[in-house]
Amino acid sequence: MYKQIIFIIVLLVNQLIDAQENVNKLPVYNKTEMIGSLYTHTTLKECDGCYVLDKIKIFNKVIVVKSEARIIGIEGKSQFEKLYTVEHIQKGKNIIITFNNTMNSTSNKIYIKKIQGQLIICKQFSYSNSSVSIKIGENDYSNYPSNFICSQNISKKIINDTLDIKDLFKYKESKECFHCPNKYSLDECIIMKNSNQKFKWD
């Protein structure tokens, strides 16, 4: 029995290692041409329009997620890296896909429902660390660190089981985004905004 448990643990560890290696070997494309793999050396110094294709399974469908790739320098060498990590969870009847930017603190989420067999994006939500200039007196302004939050209710079909992050998160900033003092939590910011409470910046 003890040997069987050890064997199962070793098998699971090997599967996790293989899965991670497969992620690391994800191809990088430019237009329709494969030009390399993630986390591997490249002689290119820049790559405008490079992308990777993640595959995730939601509502028993495999969705292809297209997101940007970039080139970074490590110890004098260049290699490909994903600009966004892609994660998904199920919450109630919705699937939430999160795109976290690896260069900054920006996090983007889409909420997906299944309606009559069709996958529909019903909401987009983004937040990031920012700053904002607040008037504190006549002709007197001060900059404060802030959470920059955007939210948009939409109804957008996922066509051909494919998502391209460049087609998402296009907000009308004057109507769908706001700054909130970073002393508040994200939930507090949203509750205060929805109830028209005034933020305290000092």
Describe this structure in words.
With 202 residues, the chain is α+β, with helices and mostly antiparallel strands. It has one domain (2-194). It is 18% helix and 55% strand. It has three helices and 13 strands, in the order αββββββββββββαβα. The chain has helices at residues 2-24, 173-176, 186-194, and strands at 27-30, 33-37, 41-42, 50-58, 61-74, 77-82, 84-91, 94-101, 107-115, 118-137, 140-157, 162-164, 177-181. The strands form two sheets. Strands 1, 2, 3, 4, 5, 6 and 12 form a seven-stranded mixed beta sheet that branches. It is flat and about 55 Å long. Residues 2-23 have low confidence and may be disordered.
Q: What would the average pLDDT be, to the nearest integer?
A: 87
Task: Provide a count of the helices.
Answer: 3
Q: Topology as H/E string?
A: HEEEEEEEEEEEEHEH
Distance between the termini: 63 Å
User: Radius of gyration in whole Å, from Cα?
Assistant: 21 Å
Structure class: alpha+beta
Could you state the oligomeric state of the chains shown? single chain
The low-confidence parts are 2-23
As a percent range, the share of helical residues equals: 10-25%
Strand content: over 45%
Largest sheet: 7 strands, mixed
The global form is flat
- For the record, the count of structural domains works out to 1
Q: Count all strands and give the number.
A: 13
Primary descriptors:
202 residues, 7-stranded mixed sheet, flat, 3 helices, 55% strand, alpha+beta, disordered N terminus
